[in-house]
């Protein structure tokens, strides 16, 4: 098999980032011998990647990392070659350097992709979302993109953005979380609903969350469901716990103290519905065939959710605040919505696999 290198560069306190990295790595191992650059990543990530016996680790096998001075071994070597280079999925930006360290980092990354290209290696962006806020970033990324053989981005609007700035080698791939769909168990009789939120650091936006959560909790307690507050990003602990504190002591309301790990994904299997402003909380609910209630606003951290829901063809419109009437409408339409969710999952799962397969044809 041909060889590929995979550079892990992501947030290591985030279950969603762990999942999309593991899903992509596992799918790639079907087609190439993959060497993961695990330098400076968390032990949890390394352990999770290592569950797949086909995964090799770059420094253990080649004695260098793209993330430290041992990179010189690769840059100067004529013998070490890879046919493919992949990097972590997720948001990608191109910001103006604000310090000497930023300039050094930018120079190093430029050398990495330039050298790999000169060695005949094809670099890919997969499962990412390119964010460009001004002309400087647009011009900079357009120039940097020449090192990439192809872009597979996770929203159709992002494909249009790249095409509009002259990057034609771009196609849509569903969020890589959909690769989990055929690997998880689902149950039919669900007794719980889930709540998980990030702090938007804005009083008015957070007030919309507080009001939406109140409507959601009251509605499902009256329906006899257990309401579970949880989090899967360590930074969300304090805010989600604060939301829970308004219901502490109420019968049928609980809080999961520990951050969800990869082994805890099964938690979602018992949720009839999930409400959140975290993309991968919503998508993990979605692939478990739960009804998802996405809250968004103009905050860049949540606004991306709308692009994902539009791309997958969901009839659920992300909202800025939840009303009781919306919940009633969801409940009255629940059979159609869950059938739609199941069909979307199957299509997006297949499309993920097909897009990755096409790389190696």
Name a few traits of the molecule:
13 strands; 8-stranded parallel sheet; alpha/beta
In short:
With 361 residues, this protein is an alpha/beta fold. It contains 13 helices and 13 strands. The model has no long low-confidence stretch (mean pLDDT 94).
Overview of the molecule:
The protein has helices at 15-28, 43-49, 58-62, 71-76, 100-118, 135-144, 156-164, 203-222, 237-245, 279-287, 300-312, 324-332, 334-359; strands spanning 3-7, 33-37, 55-57, 84-87, 90-93, 122-131, 148-153, 170-172, 192-196, 226-229, 253-255, 271-276, 291-294. The chain has 361 residues and is of the alpha/beta class. Strands 1, 2, 3, 4, 5, 6, 7 and 8 form an 8-stranded parallel β-sheet that branches. A 5-stranded parallel β-sheet has the order 11-10-9-12-13, sandwiched between helices. The mean pLDDT is 94.
Q: Helix and strand string, N-terminal first?
A: EHEHEHHEEHEHEHEEHEHEEHEHHH
Q: Strand pairing plus helix content: what structural class? A: alpha/beta
Helical content (DSSP H or I, runs of 4+): 40-55%
Model regions low in confidence, pLDDT < 50 over at least 5 residues: none
Beta-strand portion reads 15-25%
Q: Roughly how many Å is the radius of gyration?
A: 21 Å
- Main beta-sheet strand count, sense and barrel state: 8 strands, parallel
- CA distance, first residue to last residue: 13 Å
How many β-strands, per DSSP?
Answer: 13
Provide mean pLDDT, rounded: 94
Number of helices: 13
* Overall body shape: globular
């Amino acid at each position: 098999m041909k060889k590929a290198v995979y550079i892990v560069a992501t947030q290591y306190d985030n279950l969603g980032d762990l999942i999309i990295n593991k899903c992509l790595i596992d799918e790639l191992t079907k087609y190439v011998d993959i060497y993961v650059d695990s330098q400076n990543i968390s032990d949890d990530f390394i352990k999770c990647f290592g569950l797949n016996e086909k995964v090799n680790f770059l420094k253990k096998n080649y004695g260098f990392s793209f993330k430290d001075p041992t990179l010189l071994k690769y840059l100067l070597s004529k013998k070490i070659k890879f046919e493919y280079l992949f990097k972590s999925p997720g948001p990608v930006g191109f910001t103006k350097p604000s310090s000497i360290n930023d300039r050094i980092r930018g120079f190093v990354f430029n050398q990495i992709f330039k050298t790999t290209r000169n060695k005949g290696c094809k670099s890919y962006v997969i499962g990412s979302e390119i964010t460009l806020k001004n002309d400087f970033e647009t011009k900079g990324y357009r120039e940097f993109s020449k090192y990439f053989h192809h872009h597979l981005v996770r929203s159709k609007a992002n494909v249009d953005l790249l095409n509009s700035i002259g990057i034609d080698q771009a196609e849509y791939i569903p969020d890589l979380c959909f690769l989990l769909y055929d690997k998880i168990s689902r149950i039919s009789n669900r007794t719980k609903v889930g709540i998980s939120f990030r702090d938007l650091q804005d009083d008015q936006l957070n007030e919309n969350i507080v009001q939406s959560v109140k409507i959601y909790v009251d509605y499902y307690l009256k329906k006899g469901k257990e309401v579970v507050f949880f989090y899967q990003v360590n930074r969300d602990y304090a805010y989600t716990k604060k939301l829970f504190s308004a219901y502490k002591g109420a019968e049928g309301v609980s809080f999961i103290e520990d951050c969800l790990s990869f082994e805890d994904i099964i938690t979602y299997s018992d949720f009839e519905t999930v409400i959140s402003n975290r993309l991968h909380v919503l998508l993990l609910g979605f692939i478990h065939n739960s009804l998802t209630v996405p809250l968004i606003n103009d905050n860049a951290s949540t606004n991306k959710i709308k692009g994902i829901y539009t791309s997958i063809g969901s009839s659920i419109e992300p909202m800025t605040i939840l009303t009781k009437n919306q919940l009633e409408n969801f409940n009255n339409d629940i059979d159609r919505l869950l059938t739609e969710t199941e069909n979307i999952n199957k299509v997006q799962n297949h499309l993920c696999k097909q897009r990755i397969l096409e790389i190696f044809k």
